[in-house]
């Protein structure tokens, strides 16, 4: 049995805010609380308010503002001698680094957050930090290590009955299964994640689970139903101002359209997703959208030599250490085109 989802990153005077509050509203409340905390001279309350500010800015895609806010949160927590609040600030900074495609920095910040949380006895901050490390390793392409961490987190989350942690771990493992080609296992995990998220009121987790289910469905040829799942997830993303999640949703819609051989519509969708990713400085998503766009143009009859040239340029622009999996996907596309040409 799982409890209702809550947002532990909303702390102090903001702790009663719903996990599903739209991020424009979160930002307004957090900025107001930050101003009050300055007047009150409370270092801990200031750190907590700035953490919420950082997370709202990050989710809204305002990454420079998010960077300044988490650092300000950390300074306020350090000055107040609050290790737990320092850990939360570092978690936010590590999560932001991952969103920016800075995987090495993300692991460094998240590892520091984990260590501080352990010292402070902040169990939830510790769990969030370890989960962040697992997700970063998975995105970077370190699958074996990521799987071990996700499995450990899932066991702990089930034991504690924590909705969001369980959903997060299930989705991470489902993505690993999907990347390994085990669609049946991926489907079961995404489906369970969606059920737990919906029952627990975790709309963020539900949106990501629906995206995962749509991916598996389209790989099985069920394109129309996949698009319906994505439409439902998109509604959640727009309602909650989930800018990055919305961009990934649009990129997945492009994938589904491409698999359905609707290449013109796929190209338009990828182009829109790419603009969204670029507007929030998210290089991994932008690269994936560009990959889809180039493959769509190839199917629409663009000269193969031009597409191969652009794919090589995209590959060379990707750091092989930071975005290993994304670079590998581009390399596979180049190889596939070379085989077709031969």
TrEMBL record:
<dbReference type="InterPro" id="IPR011990">
    <property type="entry name" value="TPR-like_helical_dom_sf"/>
</dbReference>
<protein>
    <submittedName>
        <fullName>Tetratricopeptide repeat protein</fullName>
    </submittedName>
</protein>
<dbReference type="Pfam" id="PF13424">
    <property type="entry name" value="TPR_12"/>
</dbReference>
């Amino acid at each position: 049995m799982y409890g209702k989802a809550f947002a532990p990153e909303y702390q102090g005077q903001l702790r009663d805010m719903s996990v599903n509050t739209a991020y424009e509203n979160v930002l307004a409340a957090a900025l107001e609380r930050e101003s009050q905390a300055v007047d009150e001279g409370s270092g801990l309350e200031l750190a907590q308010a700035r953490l919420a500010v950082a997370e709202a800015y990050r989710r809204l895609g305002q990454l420079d503002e998010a960077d300044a806010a988490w650092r300000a949160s950390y300074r306020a927590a350090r000055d107040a001698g609050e290790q737990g609040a320092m850990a939360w600030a570092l978690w936010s900074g590590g999560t932001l680094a991952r969103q920016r495609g800075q995987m090495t920095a993300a692991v460094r910040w998240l590892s520091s957050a984990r260590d501080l949380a352990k010292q402070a006895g902040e169990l939830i901050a510790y769990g969030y930090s370890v989960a962040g490390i697992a997700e970063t390793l998975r995105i970077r392409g370190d699958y074996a290590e990521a799987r071990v961490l996700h499995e450990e987190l899932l066991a702990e989350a089930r034991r504690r009955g924590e909705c969001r942690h369980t959903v997060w771990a299930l989705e991470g493992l489902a993505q690993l299964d999907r990347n390994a080609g085990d669609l049946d296992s991926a489907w079961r995990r995404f489906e369970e994640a969606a059920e737990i998220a919906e029952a627990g009121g975790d709309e963020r987790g539900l949106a990501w689970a629906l995206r995962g289910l749509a991916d598996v469905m389209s790989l099985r040829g069920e394109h129309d139903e996949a698009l319906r799942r994505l439409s439902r997830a998109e509604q959640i993303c727009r309602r909650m101002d989930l800018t990055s999640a919305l961009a990934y949703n649009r990129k997945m819609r492009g994938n589904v359209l491409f698999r359905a051989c609707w290449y013109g519509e796929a190209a338009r969708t990828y182009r829109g997703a790419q603009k969204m990713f670029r507007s929030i400085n998210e290089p991994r998503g932008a690269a994936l959208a560009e990959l889809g766009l180039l493959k769509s143009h190839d199917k629409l009859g663009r000269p193969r030599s031009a597409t191969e040239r652009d794919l090589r340029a995209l590959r060379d622009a990707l750091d092989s250490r930071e975005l290993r999996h994304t670079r590998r996907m581009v390399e596979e596309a180049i190889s596939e085109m070379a085989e077709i040409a031969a």
